[in-house]
Every structure is written in structure tokens, then in C-alpha cells.
Write a structure and sequence with these properties.
Layout: H1 16-67, H2 95-98, H3 106-110, H4 123-133, E1 151-152, E2 173-174, E3 179-186, H5 197-200, E4 234-238, E5 267-271, E6 283-284, E7 296-297, E8 302-307, E9 312-316, H6 321-328
Parallel strand pairs: 3-5, 6-7
Antiparallel strand pairs: 1-2, 3-4, 4-8, 8-9
Length: 341
């Protein structure tokens, strides 16, 4: 049989025009889908941020249940932790350091202990604090803003010796925190504090009466001090940062990390006491606008705040300034319910 003359169906491929049409349609579909994917990712990041604050709030409650008070703010912006000095007034490190056992970070909390409570020069203590401050914790970082990694430590003219806090070896990189405790309605500086552990035991620290929030230098507040009610008072929130300095360590409120007692890295307030005009309410992170004492965040429309009752609320950036300041004040008698905002 001769197969050479058998009928064969002609084969057709895509023409160049058809191929271009298909590619165009795929491009249009991707362009339509991309915003939805990005929105879903941001929603997940915002939820994770809210969960971070929830965990910090619960840790504060557990700490209070165990110790009868909230953690102290420490001794001043020069001070790293001393693991042999407990979690009370004698602890020079930050409130976040004191909270580490409640955050399932007992190893990081105890790192370097055993040198004695009055020893502030032991090489093992200094190197341990360097290791501690170069240990990023994911629960302290908002995923919408940056990663939980070490960032550059830059000597800052506005915060002397930022690269070498007391009780620590010199830092070139360090961990960060995107969350700060509520200092109160109006910001007031901690100052640098004493220059040695021995001096710290008799040092004249600022009066707690200057603080209307939850955490202050060498002060132990309790739930009983929150006279406005736990559902009417902020505890911890996202802090404002300028995007161009997320990684530089230049901002004075983001240069020493979570474990040093810094008056801007780890505590924020409802308003700045030295600013008489301009925006004082919380802000979304903004290029070219430095504000290192206030709350805010990278999210569009609103940011997250944990209240003293353990809940976490999304707060609009457009919140009235005096309302926000009242929610930062634990004792002004103005019981504003944040859940109704």
C-alpha cells in the first residue's frame, strides 16, 4: 500500500499576533491580581504585628501577676542590663529585658549572670550584653516595616556613646524593636542616669510623678495606678519611624535596641513636650519627617496599640490629638473607651 499519498491534517501553530494577544491578556490578569495579592500580604503582616503586641501585653500581665508590678524602665539611656540585679528598681536595663522570661526567652535573660550585682566591669558581662543586644527577636519587629535581623549601630550626636552602653562591649550592629511602652501623655527625657552600678544604688532619679503612663525610669507602677481603667489606657504600641532610617541607626529613637534603657527606643508618649506646632497625633511612617518620641507605624490608615486590659486595637491616624493623649494618661480621670473610636 502506498502511504505517500495518504491525507494528512495540516498542523497550525500560534501566529505572532495570537501569541502577543495571549501575552497581553496574561499581563492584564497579573496586573489586576497583583494589588489583591499585595493587600492580602499586608493584611497578614498587620495581623502578625497585632499578634506581637498581644503577646507583649500578655507578658506584661504575667509579669505583674508574678512580681506585683510592671517592669521598670531602667536607669537611663546609657544602661544595658545587669542579669544579677533582678527585675525591680535595681535593674538598669529596659522593661523589655525584664520581660524576657515571660516571652519564653529565659536563656537570653540569664546570659552573663554570676559576676555579682555590684560588678560592672567583668569581661564576661560586657561580652554577654553584646551577644544579647545582637540577638533579634521576631516578636519585637513589625513585618510590614523590616526584618528581625541586626542593623547598623551608628554613633549618634544626640545620644552620647550609643555604640557602647554601660555594661556592654562596643556595638557595630544590634537588634531593634518596633514597639514601645506607653510613657504617658507628654514626653520627658530619662537622661543618661548614673555612671556606675555603685552610684546607681544611691542616685537621685527623676520623680515618677512626671510620668502619666505605664513605664518610667526606676519606677514600678501597678494596675492599681491605672485609675482611669485598664480598657481606657494604652500599655504598648507601635512607634513612629522615618522609612529612610529603618536600617541606619541614625534616629535617636531607634539607635540602641530593645534591651538598653533608652528614653526613645523603648518608650513613647502621646505628645512631645517641646513642640508647640505641627502634627502631634500619631503618624504613619513618612520620608523626611523625624519624630522620635511618638507612636505610629508603617501601616496605611491605622496602627496597633495594646491596652492595659490585654486587648489590641487598631487606632486611626486621624484620631483627635487630645483623645489620644487622654488614652496615654492612666490617671487624668477622662475615661475614653478606645474600643469605641
Amino acid at each position: 500500500m502506498n502511504h505517500g499519498n495518504s491525507f494528512r491534517r495540516p498542523l497550525h501553530g500560534f501566529t505572532l499576533v495570537e501569541l502577543l494577544v495571549v501575552i497581553t491578556i496574561i499581563g492584564i490578569l497579573i496586573a489586576l491580581l497583583l494589588p489583591a495579592v499585595q493587600a492580602a500580604r499586608e493584611a497578614a503582616r498587620r495581623m502578625q504585628c497585632s499578634n506581637n503586641l498581644k503577646q507583649l501585653g500578655l507578658a506584661m500581665h504575667n509579669f505583674h501577676n508574678l512580681n506585683g508590678h510592671f517592669p521598670s524602665g531602667g536607669w537611663g539611656y546609657m544602661w544595658a542590663p545587669h542579669p544579677d540585679r533582678g527585675v525591680g528598681l535595681d535593674q538598669p536595663g529596659s522593661w523589655i529585658y525584664s520581660l524576657l522570661p515571660q516571652l519564653e526567652q529565659e536563656g537570653l535573660f540569664h546570659l552573663g549572670e554570676g559576676v555579682g550585682r555590684t560588678n560592672d566591669t567583668a569581661p564576661s558581662l560586657l561580652s554577654a550584653n553584646k551577644k544579647r543586644m545582637q540577638t533579634p527577636l521576631g516578636m519585637l519587629i513589625c513585618p510590614s516595616r523590616r526584618q528581625a535581623i541586626n542593623y547598623t549601630v551608628t554613633p549618634n550626636p544626640g545620644a552620647f556613646y550609643v555604640a557602647k552602653p554601660i555594661l556592654c562591649d562596643t556595638l557595630d550592629v544590634g537588634a531593634r524593636t518596633d514597639y514601645a511602652a506607653n510613657f504617658g501623655e507628654v514626653f520627658a527625657s530619662f537622661d543618661s542616669g548614673p555612671t556606675s552600678v555603685k552610684q546607681g544604688d544611691t542616685f537621685a532619679f527623676p520623680s515618677p510623678s512626671t510620668c502619666s503612663g505605664i513605664v518610667f525610669v526606676r519606677t514600678l507602677f501597678t494596675f492599681a495606678d491605672v485609675t482611669d481603667g485598664t480598657s481606657n489606657t494604652f500599655m504598648i504600641g507601635e512607634k513612629y519611624l522615618e522609612p529612610e532610617n529603618y536600617e541606619t541607626g541614625i534616629n535617636a529613637g531607634d539607635d540602641q535596641g530593645p534591651f538598653v534603657c533608652d528614653d526613645r527606643d523603648s518608650v513613647r508618649s502621646g505628645a512631645m513636650n517641646y513642640m508647640t506646632s505641627g502634627l502631634l497625633r500619631p503618624m504613619q511612617d513618612r520620608e523626611g519627617y523625624t519624630r522620635d518620641t511618638g507612636f505610629g507605624g508603617p501601616h496605611a490608615g491605622s496602627f496597633n496599640m495594646a491596652l492595659c486590659d490585654g486587648s489590641v486595637d487598631s487606632i486611626s491616624y486621624s484620631i483627635e490629638e487630645t483623645t489620644f493623649r487622654c488614652l496615654c494618661n492612666r490617671k487624668d480621670g477622662k475615661t475614653i473607651d478606645a474600643k469605641k473610636l
